[in-house]
Amino acid sequence: MDLRKLQVGGPFAEYLMKAATQKSFTRDRVRIPTISTTSLESSDKSSSDMGTPSSYLDVCQAYTQCSSSGNSGRHSYEEDGSEKSVLGETDDCIQQISGVIVLSLVEANLWYRFLELGTEMIINKSGRRMFPYLQFSLRGVDPVGLYDVIFDIIPASGKCFKFLNNRWMPVGKKEDEFKNHPFKHPDSPQFGADWMMQKISFDKVRLSNKPSTGAGIFTLHTLQKYLVRISIVKHEGDDELSVVEFPIRATTFIAVTAYNNREVTKLKINSNPYSKGFRFPVKRVPLDLSIRKPSERRKNERIWTFL
DNA sequence: TCCACTATCACTTTTGAAGCGC
DNA sequence: AGCGCTTCAAAAGTGATAGTGG
Predict the structure, then answer these.
(1) Which bases on strand C have an atom closer than 7 Å to a protein beta carbon?
(2) With CB atoms counted within 10 Å of each terminal CB, which end of chain A scores lower, N or C?
(3) Average pLDDT, integer, range A113-138
(4) What's the Å distance between residue A294 CA and nucleotide C12 C1'?
(5) Which of A128, A68, A73 is nearest to A101 (CA)?
(6) How far apart are CA A85 and CA A71, in angstroms?
């Protein structure tokens, strides 16, 4: 196994200890040593525009730099926070390689089509699902090792954005992030062999603009840029965890309360099954609101008039 | 006046309970 | 009684849009 081992301690250990007590972390076998071998000082923030006030994120970022330096990112970031596409060929899947672990994003083509337009994700009070949602497969993990798979969302830019002249422009400094709890996949912990046999999906994750304590609900600021990060945590022994981080550039998006780019809306309508109702131009006839049950209203008054 | 945000609408898909036959 | 299949209503999902408020 070529996983770099991390003697977990300090702020990262603090995070894991907290995480282990949360609802989304059902496992009680996570044990944290007291020796600290990771420190915030090791973080080289100049290499990334993903700075965040959260100590947990700082530590993860520092760790990411040593553990997943092999990521095959296809997008880079300009000084102003805007992304510079270096997308070349189109793939059925992309591979992010960290050590010997390979993460293959499902529907990578779709993600990149959105990315080229400037992905927008709707957020609302109750929490809106992501579309596309994150689904991937794993290779190269230890088949008999015990792993957790953890999803979280991190800032992708230090700026906030505005949609001007049909494109997203950085307009100022981003706001401080909400405290979000990373979301552990419900199948965790599971043996590596089991993880490799299935597609791992986080389709139930929701995005909100109001602080929430619900597992799998992430509170974000509108008009700020984020991306998804996956952590593969191996339970090495009683006092040791190995962590490999995969910040997935293809998932970079701007949180919005209403779509700004018509092209993004069109692509969502054409690719999301729930949006089929918007695929064909239809003159919608108002329903009779005096009939209280929606299903009865539909039965009585469904009139379709194609334009 | 502008624009981010919210509630509600009209649609589709998913889910789960109920009914039925074997 | 138990199982598998079908049916159908309710729940949950979507983007559109009009109204609100800072």
Answers:
(1) 9-10, 12-18
(2) C
(3) 93
(4) 14
(5) A68
(6) 16
A34's CB contacts (< 8 A; 6+ apart) are A9, A13
Q: At what angle do helices A55-67 and A10-21 cross, to 10 degrees?
A: 110
Confidence of residue A176 (pLDDT cuts 50, 70, 90): confident
Q: Which positions ≥6 away from A246 have C-beta within 8 Å?
A: A68, A71, A96, A98, A103, A229, A230, A231, A232
Instruction: Report the DSSP pairing between strands A128-129 and A167-173.
Output: unpaired
Weakest-pLDDT range from A58-67, A112-121, A158-167, A183-192:
A58-67
- What does the pLDDT look like over A235-246, one tens digit per residue? 987 778 889 999
CA quadruple A220, A214, A135, A104: dihedral positive or negative? positive
Residue A258 Cβ < 7 Å to strand C: yes
Q: How far apart are the first and last CA of chain A?
A: 62
Residues A37-62 have pLDDT tens digits of 222 222 223 223 332 222 233 223 32
**C-alpha span between A73 and A96 (Å, rounded):** 8
| Interhelix angle A108-117/A262-271, nearest 10 degrees | 160
A133 touches strand C (CB under 7 A): no
Buried b (16+ CB within 10 A) or exposed e, A108-126: beebbbbbebbbbbbbeee
The CA distance from A18 to A207, in Å, is: 22
